[in-house]
Amino acid sequence: MNIHEYQAKEILRAHGVPVPPGEVATTAQEAQRIAAGFGGAVVVKAQVHAGGRGKAGGVKLARDAAEAKERAGAILGMKIKGLTVQKVLITPAEEIASEAYVGVIVDRASKSPVFMVSRQGGIDIEEVAASNPDAIQKLAVDARYGLLPFQAYWLATQLYDGIAQQRACARILRQLHEAFVASGASLAEINPLITTPAGELKAIDAKINIDDNELDRRPEIEALRDTSAEPESETIAREAGLTFIQLEGNIGAVVNGAGLAMATMDLIKFYGGEPANFLDIGGSSNPEKVVNALRIITGDPRVKVICFNIFGGITRCDDVANGIVEATKRIAIRVPLVIRLTGTNEEKALEILNAAGYSATTSMDEVVQRAVELANPSAGA
Ligand code: GDP
Ligand code: MN
Hints:
Elements: H1 5-14, E1 23-25, H2 28-38, E2 42-46, E3 59-62, H3 65-75, E4 79-80, E5 83-84, E6 88-92, E7 98-107, E8 112-118, H4 125-131, E9 136-140, H5 149-159, H6 163-182, E10 185-195, E11 201-203, E12 206-210, H7 219-222, H8 232-239, E13 243-246, E14 251-255, H9 258-270, E15 277-280, H10 287-298, E16 305-312, H11 317-330, E17 337-343, H12 346-355, H13 364-375
Parallel strand pairs: 14-16, 16-17
Antiparallel strand pairs: 1-6, 2-3, 2-6, 4-5, 7-8, 7-10, 8-9, 10-11, 10-12, 13-15
Helix pairs in contact: 2-3, 5-6, 8-10, 10-11, 11-12
């Protein structure tokens, strides 16, 4: 789950990280009022779940409250990476002497939290990693002990030369780590961590991504969810109990079980196709899930074909077949469906589908090849 910058900043503040004050506005008038309250120059910042807002014009300096109103008016309603800006954060403008990057992620390769720090803050860390990887220092921490004081200090020495700043930075890194663990994050970063001309360190941008598996035991974090800022398809999927991830291709896939979903993605790629999504209807038998799955997939205009790959175990093939027939009654499906069903109640499922004018195969290879052909008619097989 993604949360907004202002929410991430609240979490960091609660753990002691020096974060300048800020307030959220949903209208230009409100932005003006907040800016007037701060007095002086402010920064108006789009609150969307997307990086690189600055470059997209979503972060603007305003000299006074009147200008803040104008800036907020321009940013609210703007689209950044397909997401409409509905809120802006108003925060006093800081004078910047230097910008650093500090972050911690769950790293699969080292099976531990890994800290990354760089003197080249402000810009996207992916860019630094690509163009100048030596400018990033990394440190894996043992999850049993957390970030130890000497490790925090070592990282801080990679960023700052003065002792006072190294100490301040080491403290911030430990607070960042505490916030990361406490919120069940998969990523927590401050970019930039600035120094002011007076030498103070401050976090002026923050990003925290929450591991969805950590949400059940953290209702206060789940409460930060902003469904209006999430793609609608993901909200429908979550509410329907489906695991759904949007991808870039044009073959919609409906599968039961994460392992089969992975295998299906692989086979689609093997035959030269590109999956449009990862959609797992899970183990339970419930035609309604199939209807919801098709509702989500048909909402994506890029999808050229929908490929069912069902291996019936606990999932009953006849339930899936009923779901397909039901869905075609309720939703206009304008793309071809190709269906593979095998396992529990397979014969019954085939009868249901045949009666409704659909055919199905029991071969996964066949169905995926057919889907790839239908998705790329010109390419030939
Ligand atoms: P991002 O583009 O989404 O990462 O948004 P940031 O909040 O990181 O802002 C992008 C850049 O705008 C920063 O790296 C700074 O260079 C600049 N910026 C943001 N806030 C301030 C501020 O208070 N004062 C000044 N001078 N620059 C700022
Ligand atoms: Mn940033």
